[in-house]
Amino acid sequence: MPPTARPRSRIQQRNRELILDAALEVFSLHGFRGATLDQIAEVAGLSKPNLLYYFPSKEAVHKVLLTGLLDSWLDPLREMDPEGDPLAEILAYVRRKLEMSRDFPRESRLFAGEILQGAPRMREAIEGDLRDLVAGKSRILSRWMEEGRIARVDPVHLIFSIWALTQHYADFEVQVRAVLGPEHDPFAEAGSFLETLFTRLLAP
């Protein structure tokens, strides 16, 4: 039998979490190419040799972050219930995506940065799991359209538009807040706007 990996100690688990959180901060600010292990170690409050004890390279840290991120990013779409009310299910998906942009802006920017670079470290995943999920949900959307329960639009581009209109508030948060001013809550206002937008778009 292969040897069983020893469980991480509390300190090891804490340091690993510190490194991943610091890496998320650095990658989301500087992108993969601009980030360095020295920056990650400094933000984590650890020495570079200590960081290398947990992760052998910048690529290794980035891969762990992206692997966890993609799975979390797919969950809101997975939750769309094929037996639910079509408009309610779509609006719930919009809300979940907007909430993710509000609560996890660094993760959104990390994902966007990877895509802008051509997705060299996650192309297989987006051409596999992500593409398969979108295809499956598009079939559900198409069925609802054929049943006359929502208006006919291109289902894949409908999903793209939800991504664009929700993730914008994380990826361009500085711009959004600068234009709106400090007296506005962009996510609350966006939620109301997007609900109206998609309700009118999809009205049968």
UniProtKB/TrEMBL annotation:
Superkingdom in the source lineage: Bacteria
PANTHER family linked: HTH-TYPE TRANSCRIPTIONAL REGULATOR RUTR
HTH tetR-type domain: residues covered: 13-73
Pfam families found in the cross-reference section: TetR_C_3, TetR_N
DNA bind region: 36-55
Annotated protein name in UniProt: TetR family transcriptional regulator C-terminal domain-containing protein
Species in which this protein is naturally found: Tabrizicola soli
Keyword line: DNA-binding
InterPro entries in the cross-refs: Homeodomain-like_sf, HTH-type_TetR-like_transc_reg, HTH_TetR, Tet_transcr_reg_TetR-rel_C_sf, Tscrpt_reg_YcdC_C
